[in-house]
Specification:
Layout (H helix, E strand, L loop, with lengths): L1 H15 L9 H10 L3 E3 L9 H6 L13 E2 L13 E2 H4 L18 H17 L10 H7 L12 H10 L2 E2 L54 E2 L1 E7 L3 H11 L2 E8 L5 E6 L6 E15 L2 E7 L11 E5 L11 E6 L3
Parallel strand pairs: 2-6, 8-11
Antiparallel strand pairs: 1-8, 3-9, 4-5, 6-12, 7-9, 7-12, 9-10, 10-11
Helix pairs in contact: 5-6
């Protein structure tokens, strides 16, 4: 009897390894940390937040209707690509590059990440003269053919819209600069937030209103436009040269349950089910403990991850991070 009991106790931990755990449980986080060493997981979301809510934060729809031309950078033996790069350090006049936005309880990542990169590029290519943000509210609510607003959208169509119709200026929730600010209030996705209300589930997509918040500005005079929009080949050097020469880009990747608990290091998928496809802004790259990474700004506010940022494995199209890169150049007067 004693032998049988001892065998049972030895077998019990290995049996637990195959048990499906809630992705926000301490047990799941511990399991993730026990399986890898390039990144650390920790508590970002409270255990009571439903997985269905996490899925709403991933809002990239399949691109099946509109393709962008692919831009190719010439790569020769003389092409100099640094081992590490951070757009915040190269273009110091452009504070927007270092901003972390909050999409709130809305699957608007496809729009938020797009206007982040558009804003950066307007500033970069105007040598710092254009400091106003591009409005995520305007893109989210007025681009009917981009998708379903807070229920997701297509990244290439967001850039297509900037080229063909333009997007007005406007900042985050509660800001007064620009034409149209984001109307979806930031909410406490995370456990360490004391300044935001609780997230109450995905809200409705804001109505398209083609007028500015203030009567002192006009909608048409606040429009920003692209001179060209394009995709980038899914090759590391092509993505690096695009960022190095023109500024941050928008990208998407497959989000699995372990990612939501990212805290530091270079993320690599370990465990969990697929939640959806998520859009983000890539602003640089580097190497950490011999592991190459992309430096990325997320839009789940600064309480998440590494002050709103994360690093992800570079060079192997990990979770499709290098498959879908879109960008464009602003039309300057």
């Amino acid at each position: 009897m004693r032998v049988i009991l001892c065998l049972a106790l030895v077998a019990f931990p290995s049996a637990l390894a195959g048990v499906k755990l809630h992705p926000l449980s301490d047990e799941f986080i511990d399991r993730v940390n026990s399986k890898q060493s390039t990144w650390k997981a920790g508590r970002n979301f409270g255990e009571t937040i439903p997985v269905s809510y996490l899925r709403t934060l991933t809002g990239v729809l399949e691109d099946s209707t509109e393709k962008l031309l692919t831009r190719v950078h010439e790569v020769t033996e003389d092409t100099d690509i640094p081992e590490s790069f951070d757009a915040r350090e190269k273009w110091t006049k452009c504070a927007s590059i270092g901003e972390i936005r909050d999409q709130g309880a809305c699957g608007s990542c496809w729009a938020v990440a797009a206007v982040e990169a558009m804003t950066d590029r307007l500033c970069i290519h105007s040598d710092g003269e254009h400091q106003e943000s591009v409005s995520s509210e305007d893109l989210l609510s007025c681009c009917d053919y981009c998708g379903s607003g807070c229920n997701g959208g297509v990244m290439t169509l967001a850039w297509h819209y900037w080229l063909n119709y333009g997007i007005v200026t406007g900042g985050e929730y509660g800001t007064t600069t620009g034409c149209k600010s984001y109307s979806i209030e930031p909410c406490a996705h995370h456990i360490n937030s004391t300044s935001r209300p609780s997230c109450s589930g995905e809200g409705p997509t804001p109505a398209c209103v083609k007028q500015c918040d203030s009567s002192t500005q006009t909608y048409n005079n606040s429009l920003t436009l692209a001179s060209s929009v394009y995709s980038i080949e899914p090759e590391v050097s092509q993505i690096q040269l695009e960022i190095l020469n023109n500024g941050p880009v928008e990208a998407s990747f497959a989000v699995y349950e372990d990612f939501v608990s990212y805290k530091s290091g270079v993320y690599q998928y370990v465990e969990g089910d697929l939640l959806g496809s998520h859009a983000i802004k890539i602003l640089g790259w580097g190497v950490e403990n011999d592991t190459p990474y992309w430096l990325i700004a997320n839009s789940w506010n600064g309480d998440w991850g590494d002050n709103g940022y994360f690093k992800i494995l570079r060079g192997s199209n990990h979770v499709k991070i290098e498959s879908h890169i879109v960008a464009g150049l602003p039309l300057l007067e």
